[in-house]
Amino acid sequence: MLRLENMSCGYGPVRAVTDVSFELPDKSALALLGPNGAGKTSTIMAIMGHTAVQGGRILFNGEDITHVPPVRRVDLGIALVPEGRRLFTDLTVEENLTVGGYHLSTRNDAANRARVYDLFPRLSDRRKQISGSLSGGEQQMLAMGRALMAEPKLLLIDELSLGLMPKMVDQCFAALATLRAQGVTILLVEQNTTRALDFAEHVCVMTSGSLAFSGTSQQAKQDENLFDVFVSAGHE
Amino acid sequence: MDPDPVYYVDLTLNGLIFGAMYALMAIGLTLVYGLLRILHIAHAAVYAFGAFITVIVANATGSIALGIVVAIVASALLGPAIYRLLYEPLLKHPPYVAMIASMGLLIFMEDGFRILFGEQGLTFTRNPYPTEIHQLFGVTINTVQIAMIVLSVVCLTALALFTTRTRVGVAWRATVSNPTIATSFGVDAIKVRYLNFMIGSALAALAGALIALLNNFVEPSMGFVVSYKALAIIVLGGLGSMRGTLIASLALGLVESFGTILVGSYLDRDALAFLFLIIVLMVRPQGLTGARA
User: Do B213 and B127 meet the contact criterion of CB atoms below 8 Å apart?
Assistant: First the structure.
């Protein structure tokens, strides 16, 4: 479904990611791991079109989308749950969902809303509340709900569990499992390595802007060097 | 001082009317700031432009209503043109570059009005409305003031409904809140910018037209003082917030109205706005309504 071929990206003269290649098959889940500053968010934002691609290609369902403008990518079926949620904080819960489904106009609006409220009943109780006043866990649910409103085939999630209480993390991962079962392909950036490896069958590890490991999560769990990647990066 | 309570009702009404005009003027400014982080100082020139067009068209055709409509339409085109020709090429530079360009445009347009229409300004050849006095519930009010109340309530209500009840309006606010993410969900940020300049400029032109009617006079530098006040208002309102801007506008109108009576012998009406700004920012640095970090 998604394929990166020797993709490099960055900001102006600064290169954030060099020569990254990986493939994400339809209906699978891939965890993108690595220490802070490894280029995970830059990679995700390059797939959304917000980080300038400086080399290589990004393919989606076989189509080269490297130069598709960011505003059109949601039409292809790619939706983002960004790092730090980045909700529209002065908008209500309902209004955030409206923007999530903006590219569909009113098509399936009611059904998609029902799906989100079904998955996250807590949001349903807070429809009229300004999203900036929600708790961290509720904000993460809304960020996921907003992305679901776009009817994504591919969901990009940047730091699902960051700053959340363990109980909220459980709920968010449970919701993610439901989505997977419904056939949504998932690319997950996550700092909770254990959780990520349990959830996703494919794993890529990045360090300082390039790929350090790529394989199945079974292989990743057995690879001692991977542990070193995190430890050594943590001591830099 | 007159102890008659009606006198205070008069003052309050006057303050709210001026506040409503400030709001029409400042909302476009705060939205541009929210969207582009640019202080759109030339917005005051759009306001003066609206006022001049109203007078010129009204005098040429004999219809003030037509003058106002033409002024609004022309300004709704001028605003997006300013964005496209002045700001868009400067967006890659730090925001103060666009702000300096904006100041330049304000001065340029002011001098343009001066060259085209003369230093003395213009008056309506026939404008009976400011002197048509009505007694409503014991309060004295003229026709222009009634129009100011009705039109600002209608326009601001329409704007509020548009931005909360329609998908495009909600997407507009989302873009002001977070342009990158709104783009990710298929909201075209460029169209939002045009819409923003169109609506903001139309409202400023309406304010300019109504002030022109009230004073029965327009002059080239009429935007200048208003531009300073509008900047004070959007800071007070918590930059980028429509609701905050409305509250700050009405508050400033009231402060000016009462302040002129209470301390008018020490302080000029226009200086009050800045005193108010300084005091509020000392007590509430985040603005009157802002809770933003």
Answer: yes
